[in-house]
Amino acid sequence: MQKNAPFYDAIAAEMGYGRMMDFDTFIAWGAWDGPAGVALTKPFDEKQATVGNGTMVALQAQDKEQVHRLHEIALSNGGSDEGAPGPRGEADENGNVFYASYFRDPDGNKLNAFCMVNEG
């Protein structure tokens, strides 16, 4: 758990957050009165932590530039690329497009940074 803390410290810092809880078996990033946070925990059943197949954490970015920065931060902190930043899918009737990047943390957990942008 501690070995991946710097990866999440860097991601959280870009999003304007820090550690809100920090224990031997649990680290959480976010704000007490903010949106959902992210946590690394020692499994309660004391078995080895594993990567969830079909599981992904989505991080809402402020804009396209932050989507790019989060992707770069992830890769420069031991993460791996799962999809470069860019638009995904077609624009809706108002010209809004889902803009995202995909990456994995050093243990292989999948994350995505996204925002909606108006391309119309």
UniProtKB/TrEMBL annotation:
This is Lactoylglutathione lyase. It comes from the Bacteria. Residues 1-116 form the VOC domain. The keyword Metal-binding does not apply. GO terms for molecular function: lyase activity. The keyword Nucleotide-binding does not apply. SUPFAM superfamilies: Glyoxalase/Bleomycin resistance protein/Dihydroxybiphenyl dioxygenase. It comes from Altererythrobacter epoxidivorans. Keywords: Lyase. Pfam families: Glyoxalase.
